[in-house]
Amino acid sequence: MNVPSVQPMGHGVKQRDVIKMTPEEVDAFIHERRAMTLCSINHDGSIHAVAMWYGFVEGCMAVETKAKSQKVQNLRRDPRMTCLLEDGDYYEELRGVELVGTAEIVEDAGRMWELGVSVFERYNAPYTPEMRPLVEMMLHKRVVIKLHVERTVTWDHRKLGLPSTRPT
What we know:
Blueprint: H1 15-19, H2 23-30, E1 36-41, E2 47-52, E3 55-57, E4 60-66, H3 70-77, E5 80-87, E6 95-106, H4 109-123, H5 132-139, E7 142-156
Antiparallel strand pairs: 1-2, 1-5, 3-4, 4-7, 5-6, 6-7
């Protein structure tokens, strides 16, 4: 297998600075259609991580979930949460965004509706008034978890310019 040589990065060049996403890249990445991993802290201190569809409410990333779910119980007790969005199958393609912050549990029907429509449109189809019963069903006995971001960590290995390791 003929692999092109890669020049090593010089001393003093931080890879972290090279692979960091710009705010515009982060915004575009999180607005792509994907699932995210939502992490909360269990009663015993272990991490509870679940894959979730997400949308946006009041400009913030948010999810809808059953009101009695484990993640809601965890976040009511300790509102710290981390969300991870990632993409790529090979090292040179890996990119992701980690959002660290605090959760707000939203139970107001109007605010929940905004998120319900957002999630429906992101993962199903454009919302029309005929879709109202589907969104209502989706929000039945649910709450919204809205993330207030305090720290963002990003990486985009495509910026390293590494040769592909994809099998040919």
